[in-house]
């Protein structure tokens, strides 16, 4: 289970989206349309790529975390039809990192990364 990057991405996607949904609700958004629209700033593949690139460019990730991102990015899987392959794979890399951190019980690090993404850190 832990040696499959796409399984890690599958779990990471869930954790990532839950964090964003909770963040937006706690921020005071309470209309479904607002929540949906605002969540796209974080949960679309394009947004995830942007946030991952910011994490990388600002040296926020450790060398080990960057290896996990590459592991997920390079995994053979299906491609999303709504975005280009590079964007999709980078988004998968971010989700893989979140999933791997979750399964290795590094939940505080997930919080740090997610807080950075939403601008709370």
C-alpha geometry: globular
Radius of gyration, in Å, reads 14 Å
Helical percentage: over 70%
Count of DSSP helices?
6
Question: How many structural units, i.e. domains?
Answer: 1
Let me know the CATH homologous superfamily.
Ribonuclease III domain
> Which CATH first-tier class would you pick?
Mainly Alpha
Question: What's the main sheet like?
Answer: none
The N- and C-terminal alpha carbons lie at a distance of 32 Å
Could you report the average pLDDT, rounded to the nearest whole number? 93
Order of helices and strands: HHHHHH
Beta-strand residue percentage: under 5%
The beta-strand count equals: 0
What are the segments in which pLDDT stays under 50 over at least 5 consecutive residues?
A: none
Output the CATH topology: Ribonuclease iii, N-terminal Endonuclease Domain, Chain A
Named at the architecture level, the CATH assignment is Orthogonal Bundle
Structural class: mainly alpha
List keywords for this structure.
0% strand, single chain, globular, 121 residues, mainly alpha, Ribonuclease iii, N-terminal Endonuclease Domain, Chain A, 6 helices
Structural overview:
This protein is an all-alpha fold. It has one domain: Ribonuclease III domain (Ribonuclease iii, N-terminal Endonuclease Domain, Chain A). The chain has six helices and no strands. The longest helix has 22 residues. The chain is globular, with a radius of gyration of 14 Å. The model has no long low-confidence stretch (mean pLDDT 93).
């Amino acid at each position: 289970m832990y040696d499959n990057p796409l399984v890690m991405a599958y779990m990471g996607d869930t954790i990532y989206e839950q964090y964003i949904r909770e963040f937006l609700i706690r921020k005071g958004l309470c209309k479904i349309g607002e929540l949906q629209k605002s969540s796209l700033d974080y949960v679309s593949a394009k947004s995830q790529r942007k946030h991952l690139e910011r994490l990388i460019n600002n040296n926020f990730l450790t060398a080990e975390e960057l290896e996990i991102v590459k592991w997920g990015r390079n995994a053979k899987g299906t491609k999303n039809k709504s975005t280009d392959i590079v964007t999709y794979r980078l988004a998968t890399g971010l989700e893989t990192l979140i999933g791997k951190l979750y399964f290795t019980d590094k939940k505080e690090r997930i919080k740090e990364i997610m807080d950075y993404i939403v601008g709370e850190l």
